[in-house]
Specification:
Blueprint lengths: L2 E5 L5 H15 L7 H12 L4 E8 L2 E13 L4 E11 L7 H16 L5 E2 L7 H9 L14
Parallel strand pairs: 4-5
Antiparallel strand pairs: 1-2, 2-3, 3-4
InterPro entries: Acyl_CoA_acyltransferase, Diverse_Substrate_AcTransf, GNAT_dom
Pfam families: Acetyltransf_1
Protein name: GNAT family N-acetyltransferase
């Protein structure tokens, strides 16, 4: 089986959309966003101005994706990346696919001179927390909040 991790491309639109719906609706149980909105998001990321998206392909089929958004740190007076998404289809979790997607995000962050990469995961997602620990990540001191 061949594994390729690369930037998402326009030709990936349908396969990436399918995997993103598996992530949004299947994994996180969120409502299905309109296809047009999802395609607009993918198109924005293809431009690589506000963020980037990577895909994992196994034998030519998209089996995962990761999304980095770019933002600023006032305290560091510099830009950093937010790994907003890291998703691999269920049967490939805890494999090199997951690790390679994560490492590609970290590599991109370092090569493009962002100060650091940050992300959050659900408090009950113990599997993801174990994965991040294994990858050498350090849990932060900040408490995460949000409003809707």
């Amino acid at each position: 089986m061949s594994l390729v991790i690369r930037f998402a491309e326009l030709d990936d639109l349908n396969g990436l959309t399918e995997v993103m719906y598996e992530y949004i609706v299947g994994f996180y149980k969120n409502p299905r966003p309109a296809t047009e909105k999802l395609h607009q998001l993918i198109q924005t990321l293809l431009e690589k101005q506000e963020g980037v998206q990577f895909v994992a392909l196994q034998d030519g089929k998209i089996v995962g994706f990761a999304t980095l958004y770019f933002t600023f740190s006032t305290m560091k007076a510099a830009k950093y990346t937010v790994m907003n998404d890291l998703f691999v289809i269920e049967q490939l979790r805890e494999t090199e696919v997951e690790s390679q997607l994560f490492l590609e995000c970290h590599k991109y962050t370092k090569e493009h001179q962002f100060t650091h990469m940050t992300w959050i995961t659900a408090a009950d997602n113990k599997r993801a927390q174990q994965f991040f620990d294994k990858m050498g990540a350090i849990q932060g001191d900040w408490v995460n909040y949000s409003m809707r």
